[in-house]
Design goal:
Layout (H helix, E strand, L loop, with lengths): L5 H5 L9 E8 L5 H6 L3 H11 L12 E13 L3 E13 L6 E15 L17 H17 L7 H14 L17 H9 L4 H14 L7 H22 L4 H18 L7 H8 L4 H8 L2
Parallel strand pairs: 1-2
Antiparallel strand pairs: 2-3, 3-4
């Protein structure tokens, strides 16, 4: 188990390690050859930044978190201005297993920034920079989700950092990348949900889903299924209580729906699919198909 508090007391202060094992891919087919040339080291620079930056003050002695950032450039102008879409995913290795659980899978459609070939990239927690601040935001979100899956609410400090970036970004010339949206994915709303007291039970269940659930699968499958089902029943209760759209719940199912189907398709109790149809209506056909197998 990762213990984010205890290790601070027993590991020398000189011990440092980065948190992410990030892989960057880029697609700039929509850009002209001139701009493609300006971006020929972009992938390497972004990957180096994410993998060499220490995002937390905690001692990190564990396996780096596997994550990917797939960047699709949509436009370029004025020599240095770019717009892109980015798909971000992260995975968590299950205890005593070679299997991984998908923790995050989001498509962020609005990312605008300025970039000059070979420019220096600096980690700065106080100033907003449209290129690196988005990477920092997702780094904190990824680390926070990983932390929450090992200790209840251990991700709070990281979610707070991500929210601070979003708030600052919404008051800059790049506000459209960070503003609220009534439809689609919204990164600021996601971290606000994570910090909202209304979702504390979600975060407790999220911890149990992973540490008391998936991590025990090879030793006690009944506990795994019980923890996973508790998560879904809890989400159902939250949705009924709040009666509003939740980016956090939508993002959870974007990452976890396939996993839930995989685990429960051959389980003798398929009643969970009845709840999944209610709480995640966008995938009704997949849940019905799985329940009939």
């Amino acid at each position: 188990m990762k213990n984010f508090i205890f290790l601070l007391l027993i590991i020398p202060a000189t011990f440092v390690a980065q948190e992410l094992d990030a892989r960057i891919t880029i697609n700039y087919e929509q850009l002209s050859p001139a701009y493609k040339e300006k971006l020929d080291v972009f992938q390497r620079q972004m990957e180096t930044y994410l993998n060499n930056t220490k995002f937390t003050e905690n001692v990190w002695e564990w396996e780096r978190i596997k994550c990917s950032f797939n960047i699709f450039f949509t436009s370029a102008s004025d020599e240095t201005k770019y717009a892109a879409q980015i798909v971000v995913t992260s995975q968590r290795k299950l205890e005593k297993s070679e299997r991984y659980s998908l923790m995050l899978s989001v498509m962020d459609n609005t990312w605008k920034f300025v970039y000059e070939k070979n420019q220096s990239l600096y980690f700065n927690q106080t100033d907003f920079e449209p290129l690196t601040s988005l990477l920092d935001f997702y780094a904190y979100l990824i680390i926070g989700l990983d932390a929450d899956s090992y200790e209840p609410f251990a991700g709070s400090a990281f979610f707070s950092e991500a929210l601070n970036i979003a708030v600052i970004g919404s008051n800059t010339n790049y506000a459209d990348s960070w503003a609220y949206k009534s439809t689609g994915y919204n990164k600021r709303a996601l971290v606000e949900d994570l910090m909202d007291a209304n979702y504390q039970s979600f975060r407790q269940d999220f911890y149990e889903y992973h540490y008391i659930g998936l991590d025990l699968y090879t030793r006690d499958k009944n506990k795994t299924f019980a923890a996973m089902k508790k998560m879904i029943v809890g989400i159902k209760a939250i949705k009924k209580k709040l009666n509003k759209r939740s980016i956090l719940i939508e993002t959870f199912f974007d990452a976890k729906s396939g996993e839930l189907i995989e685990y429960f398709t051959n389980h003798n109790d398929k009643s969970i699919f009845e709840d999944l149809i209610v709480v995640d209506p966008g995938r009704v056909s997949k849940y019905i198909e799985a329940s009939n197998k």
